Amino acid sequence: MSDTTIRADAHLPRQGTAAGGARPVVEVAVGILLQPDGRFLLTSRPPGKVYAGYWEFPGGKLEPGESVAQALARELHEELGLRIEPASVSRWREQLVDYPHALVRLHFCRVTAWQGALQMREGQQAAWERLPVRVQPVLAGTLPVLQWLGEEAACDKPPT
Ligand SMILES: Nc1nc2c([nH]c(=O)n2[C@H]2C[C@H](O)[C@@H](COP(=O)(O)OP(=O)(O)OP(=O)(O)O)O2)c(=O)[nH]1
């Protein structure tokens, strides 16, 4: 778990804080679909959702009783028509993000195999990207992943 919470749009009021109690944490499963050549899949948030048009990794909220891997498999199928096997999913990092609309814990998973052709089932867009990414804007809670991928790529390079 990252020891820092990202506070997105800090100037905006937070929903769910009026009663003064602790804000519930919304658990979210997120998939980083990686091609052998290093490209990864970003999708745009569909019309009608908060931060519509922002780019993110595919995924969504856990339903009651679901594991992260189960939620990710369900979301990838619902949103993109892709099927994944648990063996091709590995939990990577977590990040807490404090948005005006919700406090979310993002469970980032690396996915190296999937079946099916991409279908944009929610009116979103998809792009196979490399660093630096061409699509904009990128969601605040998604930006750290780009930094982590960049750090990994730097570590993989031979010393000059
Ligand atoms: N999928 C995804 N969500 C992200 C990323 N980064 C990030 O901050 N988030 C946040 C945005 C949302 O607050 C939350 C995901 O919730 P969502 O509303 O998209 O989830 P969902 O698909 O289950 O939506 P719904 O059923 O309520 O329509 O996680 C990311 O890279 N991918």
UniProtKB/TrEMBL annotation:
Species this protein is from: Ottowia pentelensis
Signal peptide: none
Stored SUPFAM superfamilies: Nudix (SSF55811)
Family: Belongs to the Nudix hydrolase family.
The protein's name: 8-oxo-dGTP diphosphatase
InterPro entries assigned to the protein according to its UniProt record, in alphabetical order: MutT-like (IPR047127), Nudix_hydrolase (IPR020476), NUDIX_hydrolase-like_dom_sf (IPR015797), NUDIX_hydrolase_CS (IPR020084), NUDIX_hydrolase_dom (IPR000086)
Sequence ranges assigned to domain Nudix hydrolase in this UniProt record: 24-151
Keywords, comma-separated and alphabetical: DNA damage, DNA repair, DNA replication, Hydrolase, Magnesium, Metal-binding, Mutator protein
Domain of life: Bacteria
EC number from the UniProt entry: 3.6.1.55
Pfam families: NUDIX
Required cofactor names: Mg(2+)
Substrates-to-products reaction catalysed: 8-oxo-GTP + H2O = 8-oxo-GMP + diphosphate + H(+); 8-oxo-dGTP + H2O = 8-oxo-dGMP + diphosphate + H(+)
